[in-house]
Known about the structure:
about 45% helix; 3 helices
Amino acid sequence: MLTLEDVCRAMKIGKNAAYDLLKTGKIKSIRNGRTWIVPKRALEAYVMKESGLDLIDPMVQNNP
């Protein structure tokens, strides 16, 4: 589990940008009172989706 500050450090973004990603649901998270909790896999999924790497299926091989 990651905190908002962890997300900011990992993505090299500010708190406002991180809050926007969490509030809009682009990064799946849980809010516990005033604290945001982000599962590591949720951050990884967001990065993979935004980079386009989630479209690559590692089971598919190109054999010429």
